[in-house]
Amino acid sequence: MREKKITLVLILFSFILSAFGQLNDSKTLTFRVYDEENNDPVPFANIYFNHHQNGCETDLEGSAFYSNQTFISNFAIVEVSGFLKDTVIIDTQQNSSHYVIKLQRQFERTEKVNISLGINPAHKWLKLAQSKGKENDPRYFDNYETHIISKSVFTIDRITAPFIRDKTNQKLLKLFDTLTQVTDDTSKKVLPVFVSATASKYYHQKNPQREKELVENTFVRGIGVMDASFIGQVTGNALVQYNVYKPILQFLGKGILSPIAPGAKLMYRYKLLGVDKSDSLRKFIISVSPRNKKDIAFEGNIWIQEETGAVIKLNLRLRGTTNINYIDRLLITQVYNQSFNSKPALGQSRVQIFMTEVGDNLPGINALNTAKLGVYKEKTDYPLNFFLNRFDIENSSSQNTADTLFALFDSSEKRILSRIDTIQSLPYINRSVQLLTFLVDGYLGYGLKWPVELGPYYLFGSYNPLEGVRSRIGFRTSYYTSPKWQLEAYAGYGFKDKKFKYGGKFSWHPSPRTGTNLKLRYSDDVELIGFTDNDVVTSGDALVEALNMFGSRNVSYCKTAQVEFNTDIIRGLTLTTKFSNRDYDVPQNQQSILSWYEDQQSQTLGNHLNNSTITTQLRYEPKVFYLFRRGRRKRVGRPGPTYTAFYTKGIPNVLGSTFSYQRVGARYDHRYLWGGIGRSLWGARYSKVLGQLPFPLLNLPLGNNSFILNNRSFNQMNLFEFVADESVQGYFEHHFNGFILNRIPVLNKLDWRMVLQSKAIYGSLRNENIELIPNQGRRETAKPFNREPFIEGGFGIENIFNFFRVDAIWRFSHMSLADANNFGIKASAFVNF
Predict the structure, then answer these.
(1) Per-residue pLDDT tens for 330-385?
(2) Could you report the per-residue pLDDT of 199-239, keeping only the tens digit for each?
(3) Fewest CB within a 10 Å sphere: which of 1, 158, 544, 805?
(4) Handedness of CA 422, 425, 427, 431 (dihedral sign)
(5) Cβ atoms 725, 764 nearer than 8 A
(6) With helix as H, strand as E and coil as C, how does 149-215 read?
């Protein structure tokens, strides 16, 4: 009996071991599906066995995993819309296998689109998505919050023969690696230069529409990275995500018309590819493609759900054939697998940018960002001023959170981290990073933890008619000296006038998040009357001001003392108060142009101005937001309007000033992206001076006697040609982004882009101010408008050799004057995507 029990126990134990072994001896298959054309991952590909049974689907990275107790078939079918179907033979002798599949694109002619009774069936579902767009647009969701984990990887690829032959690169070449999440081409190795992971909370308010991203923690490892918190803001969710429900999507300052935007049929072709019946509500797969391959428009597939009209998935790309410089392609993949109030909400996103056309002998850049969004939770208790800043950084960050972010990296990404550490240890890499940082920032010592930094290098040498060739050297205290305050100083010398100049500025930034700062400045230098001496017009950019002085005749000596205070009142509304004292000393060779009557009866000419003013300005930019870096904030402007109002009071008997007057004005500027057909800039300005003043202190429209195009000036107006004490002006400029020239044979191969521009100004001048202008000056310069506005306009071609712009500009009024420039060619150069 005992033997039977033992036998029974052994049989039972053997059965349990056998069953357990079968549970753990499952058959596993992993798949990576790529586009054969360029090795991009193919998401949403269906992999199935035995006639659409027991299948799986690739994720955003083109990966799929299948597990079963037995092989139900010795082959798998791979199928996805837009590609030819492929068959994979399964090795049933192996328990675990990995398959890499390259799919060929399926090209169909436009006339093969199925049209029934003259109606494209894809248009039915497109119309549904458009009609339900506002209901499904997350911008119109009720107040909510969600958690986001985003990861970014930057690599260098497309290694050229000169790079390989360079002996200094041999150590670097050994660090190149094949990264499956970047490319599947095993022969194409890339050099990892940056990896980051960011955990943040995203908040949305419906009415009024507000959004905020609170960066909780950031894990960053990259060559030359010095500020992880700033990188966390840049690589977080908000700057890299695309909302397909927005009519216009922005990319590198250009507008891309969404495939489901109203009127999108004018730019896109649509085709119904199939129906996904995996859920209770069917999803219709719509193929989109641009009507003109040079237009900035997407191609790819979108999945539209029946009844709701919601976009459930999308896989779009912007090809390198579009008229965008340096970009080979942009890939956007999204899955709406989250839910908020029964509406599909974005759950996963993948954005990849390939920059591979910078130059024939230069490597390309591959940037990849992925994001996963958590549960959407309703939120109603936002505190006061919660949305004051679009971005914010959590004050306390725990090591546990950083460790959690590090744990999100897979083995391939962790290998990247180790290689980045090795790369940074190479001495010549450090030198290269320092040189690049110097070129971008302008100051030698930036990022090297020097207490003092030298620069900016672009002002070491310059030219203007008064000083001739000018040299300058300057310095500033660094962030490592103090994150709250900064001291700047410089000294310059003009080789023509043989005079030394100098200046200094002290800045205090107690609260960057509210924009609160105080600036003190003093200089004994030269200024451009009507531009750099105008507290409302001047840009504050030293390089812009230096370029405007080039070739200008109204450069004058000036001692300047200023106190400036800035702070935010509410989000987007900034208050600026500035006290200025300027003591002008007009050069002898310009006194005939800039002189005025100090005494009308004796007609005594004056050429020395001492003017003290206090200016208050309110600037409102609803769509502006800021990033924070090194105790400062960096402005990020979005397309939209900007409103400015200002008031200036001339204060007599302060630091020797002699003028009492008032200046009031307002300005409106708007930047708009049209999606596909370019971008427009327009605006208007009004200004009025109350009081009797020498004409250099009145409203002087900025002319341009040089051959360089200046968007701030009237390019066919002479310097000091007109003067007014009350004026109104407007401008309009439209950049077509190649929309017109893309359609002209031969020219469409040059990637040129057309620009239209027009400016007008009209002003009046009271008799009391006319009487202060000498007769000679009244005839030659500083003339009233005499009831006729000044109007100019023209067109230009930009993106010539990806760098130059040339404009032909006509003068349409005041054309009979002896010194009128009725036509001119102006040129400029700038880096343009």
Answers:
(1) 899 999 998 998 899 999 999 888 876 555 555 667 888 888 999 999 988 888 78
(2) 889 999 988 888 888 888 888 777 666 555 555 555 554 54
(3) 1
(4) positive
(5) yes
(6) EEEEEEEEECCCHHHHHCHHHHHHHCCCECCCCCCCCCCCCEEEEEEEEEEEEEEEECCCCEEEEEE
Nearest C-alpha neighbor of 180 from the set 413, 467, 449: 413
Residue linked to tokens 């010539």:
800
- 14-103 CATH pick, 2.60.40.420, 2.60.40.10, 3.40.190.10, 3.40.1080.10: 2.60.40.10
Please check whether residue 664 is in contact with residue 647, taking contact to mean a CB–CB distance below 8 angstroms.
yes
Q: Which two tokens stand for residue 222?
A: 């990259």
Supply the pTM of this predicted model: 0.82
- Dist CA 353 CA 362 (whole Å): 17
Tell how strand 726-735 and strand 753-764 pair up. Answer: antiparallel
Q: What is the pLDDT of residues 372-403, one digit of tens each?
A: 999 999 988 888 788 877 878 776 555 555 66
Q: Nearest-CA neighbor of 125 among 265, 285, 235?
A: 285
Q: Per-domain residue ranges for the chain?
A: 14-103, 122-137+249-324, 142-242+341-426, 661-833
Q: Which structure tokens are listed for 424? A: 């940074």
Spatial neighbors of 584 by CB under 8 A, at least 6 apart, are 527, 529, 533, 556, 557, 558, 608, 609, 610, 611, 696
State residue 522 phi and psi, 5-degree precision.
-140, 140
Strand partners, 255: 250
What is the residue whose two structure tokens read 């990896």?
195
DSSP symbol at 292: S
Name the token pair of 152. 């970014």
One-letter amino acid identity for 768?
A: E
